[in-house]
């Protein structure tokens, strides 16, 4: 079992196992008991010190220490006599399914290879990729999904290779020389091709973490991430903001570099059926797109708007959107510990933890303001997000009276 890692966080601390993927949040009292235990104090010594510090009876102090010990053993699992606070949330290490896409506008012309196949040399998430498709129908289906991506500079050698072999009715997909998928429709081929590009661009093992989030670039060049579990409305709100002129980083996954900057994946938006009607006024081309079924849901790919993002961008804002029909608009400022808990609950992926990675994660979460957004319709959601962008800009410029602002009961302006 790996050693326990600890880093200060607000009044308490965050613990994690070395090489693990879970985060454990401690309040101030639990942190104090943990540190005493780590210093070699026995349970009765801890109870005696606790009683003296907080003016408790010996029995009350002993009961508190035992309660925390039991919480450790039950909730952190198998740590025997080691101490901790109750586990408030955890980051699961399961692989992300599907996911969003990202930004750009360089149109990449396909080329015909010596055997008649169509090929593209692209840059995706900072990685260079060669895509080759043998069948003309498969290339026709995939072309609109790749045309907006940035072209690899001339004479540059790609780091990765993707190849679609066979025909539209019987194809196989190869990634870096490995056979990874096969199918019998052009729609499925496009789906697996986009997933392969996502896997190459995301590279969670090389990141500080891979956020389950959408992301756009705010005025001034910093990024806003829209974090949430599936169904929170990240893709729809990210797409609407993109249509309003904010360059897109991604609609469902935003990798974060070890330095804390956000990576634009430059892939298409993945729009589920429930969002087609609400986004059609902003993206009239949406209904013309072919339908693919991802995890049983009808989905259309939608190339983003605006020019490509050149490299990673600094973090500027956390947003946690929640579409709630018939509700009032509300925006609430969140403290860093709540931001970290919500990121953990969103199924974002954190690579195996070390002390330096845990320290960097906690510092990164504390580096930008965060807000929860509740809104009854997309127009209100866009207006709330723009208001948060303005607040973040004023804070960066030092013109805001307070770094935290709440707007409960706020009503969106008529459009």
Characterise the protein shown here:
With 415 residues, the protein is of the alpha+beta class. It is built from ten helices and 20 strands. The protein has helices at 28-38, 43-54, 58-77, 136-146, 186-202, 234-243, 276-280, 336-345, 355-365, 378-397, and strands at 4-9, 12-17, 24-26, 111-112, 118-124, 127-133, 150-151, 160-167, 170-175, 178-183, 209-217, 223-227, 248-250, 253-256, 269-272, 291-294, 297-302, 315-323, 330-334, 370-375. Strands 4, 5, 6, 7, 8, 9 and 10 form a seven-stranded mixed beta sheet that branches. Strands 11, 12, 13, 14, 18, 19 and 20 form a seven-stranded mixed beta sheet that branches. It has a three-stranded antiparallel beta sheet with strand order 1-2-3, with helices on both faces. A hairpin with a 2-residue loop joins β8 and β9 (170-175). α2 crosses α3, α4 (136-146) packs across α5 and α6 (234-243) packs across α10.
Counted beta strands: 20
Strand content: 25-35%
Low-confidence stretches: 78-107, 400-415
User: Helix and strand succession?
Assistant: EEEHHHEEEHEEEEHEEHEEEHEEEEHHEH
> What is the CA–CA distance across the termini?
58 Å
Mean pLDDT: 81
Please bin the fraction of helical residues. Answer: 25-40%
Coarse shape: elongated
Radius of gyration of CA atoms, rounded to a whole number = 24 Å
What structural class should be given to the helix and strand makeup? alpha+beta
Largest sheet: 7 strands, mixed
Count of discrete alpha- or pi-helical segments spanning 4 or more residues: 10
């Amino acid at each position: 079992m790996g050693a326990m890692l600890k880093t200060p966080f607000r009044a308490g601390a965050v613990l994690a196992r070395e090489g693990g993927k879970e985060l454990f949040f401690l309040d101030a009292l639990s942190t104090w008991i943990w540190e005493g235990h780590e210093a070699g104090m026995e349970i009765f010594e801890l109870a005696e010190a606790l009683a003296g510090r907080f003016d408790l009876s010996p029995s009350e102090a002993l009961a508190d220490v035992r309660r925390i010990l039991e919480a450790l053993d039950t909730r952190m699992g198998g740590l025997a006599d080691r101490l901790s606070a109750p586990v408030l949330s955890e980051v699961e290490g399961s692989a992300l399914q599907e996911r969003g896409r990202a930004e750009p506008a360089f149109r990449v012309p396909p080329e015909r290879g010596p055997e008649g196949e169509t090929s593209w040399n692209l840059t995706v998430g900072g990685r260079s990729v060669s895509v080759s498709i043998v069948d003309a129908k498969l290339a026709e289906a995939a072309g609109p999904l790749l045309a907006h991506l940035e072209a690899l500079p001339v004479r540059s050698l790609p780091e990765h290779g993707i190849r679609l072999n066979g025909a539209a009715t019987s194809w196989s997909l190869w990634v870096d020389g490995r056979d990874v998928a096969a199918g019998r429709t052009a729609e499925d081929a496009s789906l697996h091709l986009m997933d392969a590009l996502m896997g190459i661009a995301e590279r969670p093992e090389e990141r500080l973490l891979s956020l389950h989030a959408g992301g756009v670039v705010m005025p001034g060049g910093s990024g806003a991430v829209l974090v949430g579990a599936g169904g929170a409305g990240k893709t729809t709100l990210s797409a609407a903001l993109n249509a309003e002129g904010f360059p897109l980083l991604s609609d469902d996954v935003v990798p974060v570099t070890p330095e804390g900057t956000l990576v634009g994946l430059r892939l298409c938006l993945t729009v589920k059926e429930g969002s087609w009607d609400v986004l059609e006024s902003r993206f009239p081309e949406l209904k013309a797109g072919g339908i693919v079924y991802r995890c049983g849901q009808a989905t259309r790919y939608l190339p983003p708007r605006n020019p490509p993002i050149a490299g990673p961008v600094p973090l500027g804002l956390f947003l946690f959107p929640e579409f709630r029909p018939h509700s009032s608009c509300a925006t609430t400022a969140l403290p860093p510990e709540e931001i970290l808990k919500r990121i953990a609950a969103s199924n974002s992926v954190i690579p195996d933890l070390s002390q330096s990675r845990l320290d960097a994660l906690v510092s990164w979460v504390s580096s930008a303001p965060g807000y929860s957004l509740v809104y009854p319709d997309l127009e209100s959601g866009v207006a709330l997000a723009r208001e948060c962008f303005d607040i973040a800009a004023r804070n960066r410029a030092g013109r805001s009276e307070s770094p935290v602002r709440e707007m409960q009961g706020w009503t969106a302006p008529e459009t």
